[in-house]
Amino acid sequence: MQRALFIGRWQPLHPGHKWLFNQKLEKDIPILIAVRDTPVDDSNPFTTEDVINNLEKEYSEEIENGMVKVIPIPDIESVNYGRGVGYEINEFEPPKDIGKISATEIRKKLKK
What average pLDDT is seen over the chain? Predict the structure, then answer.
């Protein structure tokens, strides 16, 4: 089964992330959410395990029916691809109300 791959920190999962995942889920395309294994710091207040648990809780039904799979991956320096690799490279431009969501601002509020 082919899946659409999403790579990120998801620190924390927010409506912008959900909107992004839904670009494929709403088309009945299964997704693979790869969670970068980053050290805990101000930009990454949650452990990789915490992030995976949050995603698995949020998408429990979709995981059960095979539409979502969540995996940890080592932290990455870049995403690279060659020509004619056999899959699409997509960028989704969110609507303004979604695009203005800031995980940095969410993390600041969580600290308070």
Answer: 93
